[in-house]
Amino acid sequence: MTASSASPYQRLHVELDARRYPIHVGPGVLDAPDMLVPYLAGRQVMIVTNETVAPLYLERLKRTLSGDDRDVREVILPDGEHTKTLASVERIWDALLAAGFNRRCTLVALGGGVIGDMAGYAAACYQRGVAFVQVPTTLLSQVDSSVGGKTGVNHPRGKNMIGAFWQPRAVLIDTDTLATLPGRELSAGLAEVIKYGLIQDSDFLAWLEARMPALRGLDVEALTDAILRSCAIKAEIVARDETEQGQRALLNLGHTFGHAIEAHQGYGNWLHGEAVGAGMLMAATLSQRLGWLSTEDMARVETLVASAGLPVTVPAAMGVEAFLATMRLDKKNIDARLRLILLSRLGEACVYDETPPNMLEALLVEFPRA
Ligand code: NAD
Ligand code: GLY
């Protein structure tokens, strides 16, 4: 990862040799052709967005991308995690074929993680792979899903079970877009921000404890700093382990429990970030029971998650088997062994596959319900 201060925007890079790409962060990126146009593969451009984001930002992005004889089209999908399906991706492919777009086209994902994951997967498969650019508009997508090339859709039996690694050409983050984001979605994004502090950076964790009110109050400087630090940590991990053979799995802290909550509740009823927030608390509790976190550490994690506006309990209706059924399908598992991401201390995580089954079961029984 490298940083540069030469442009008016803050810039990092994901270092993947020939597929190295920039992450630009700043206000007004949507209106800056020089931020966007250099990453287009040719004159055919398909913006993929949804019914909520389109009225807010589509016309501005189209204006910025138009000119120089470019053919800029759009496909506007319905909104929601429940729409993250192959059927939605087929609508993107249909639009590309109807427009007669060829291998030199570029897909531009304008929206949150649902749009980014689907547009990326559509790009990975269309004519065996075309260019795509991420323009993430939620905090969660700006700090996590737009970076690193994980793309895909959900299956009724499990989240993100169908997908591909396909890196974008650039990630262009317009921090102004956060002004229209509902507070609940901002909190969901903060879950992934907290995750970076917990797994890798205790100084960042302490910074988050101090700056949480500013972040929730949409303080632009605090948000920009949080986005930059989060993207820097993610970029570094992805550059070392693009296809999750090892360290990248640490980015899944809380996700094994969280995915079970999302699947059980019906996709979209608990936001992904909310489920990750509660899931991180479950992982921290297990880490404490293994003797790795102190009571004070645990209290800090709980206070931080709560102060971000995230749930600290899990759904009352979820029994042990409801958790385990989804957890057994987790992509991190090897053979029949459940692998969890736990905290060896605050600011350091590990992959652990030796949790005693009775300890896990006790956690799943005893964790507070609401
Ligand atoms: P989302 O894409 O559903 O967006 C949340 C809501 O905010 C939606 O209703 C959306 O239309 C709306 N929205 C988006 N931008 C807005 C704006 N600027 N103003 C107002 N409303 C806006 O959810 P998300 O939290 O962005 O992403 C969650 C998804 O990301 C999940 O499917 C998750 O699996 C995926 N994810 C992927 C990765 C990855 O590495 N690929 C990492 C983390 C999460
Ligand atoms: N959000 C997990 C990853 O990108 O690996």
Could you characterize the architecture of this molecule?
This protein is an alpha/beta fold. The protein has helices at residues 33-36, 54-65, 86-98, 113-125, 139-145, 183-200, 202-216, 220-240, 255-265, 272-289, 295-307, 320-327, 357-366; strands spanning 3-4, 10-14, 21-26, 44-50, 71-77, 106-111, 131-136, 150-155, 158-165, 171-174, 340-345, 348-352. The longest helix has 21 residues, at 220-240. It binds nicotinamide-adenine-dinucleotide and glycine (GLY). Residues 144, 148, 150, 248, 251-252 line the site of glycine (GLY).
Main attributes of the structure:
single chain; 370 residues; alpha/beta; Rossmann fold; Dehydroquinate synthase-like, alpha domain; 2 domains; 18% strand; binds nicotinamide-adenine-dinucleotide; binds glycine
DSSP summary: helix tally = 13
Q: In which range does the helix fraction lie?
A: 40-55%
Distance between the termini: 41 Å
Tally of DSSP β-strands: 12
Could you tell me the CATH topology label of the largest domain: Dehydroquinate synthase-like, alpha domain
* Structural class estimated from helices and strands: alpha/beta
Beta percentage is 15-25%
- Estimate the global geometry from the Cα principal axes: globular
Topology as H/E string?
EEEHEHEHEHEHEEEHHHHHHHEEH
Identify the bound ligands: nicotinamide-adenine-dinucleotide, glycine
How do the strands line up in the largest sheet? Answer: 1-2-3-10
Number of domain modules: 2
Rounded to an integer in angstroms, the radius of gyration calculated over CA atoms is: 20 Å
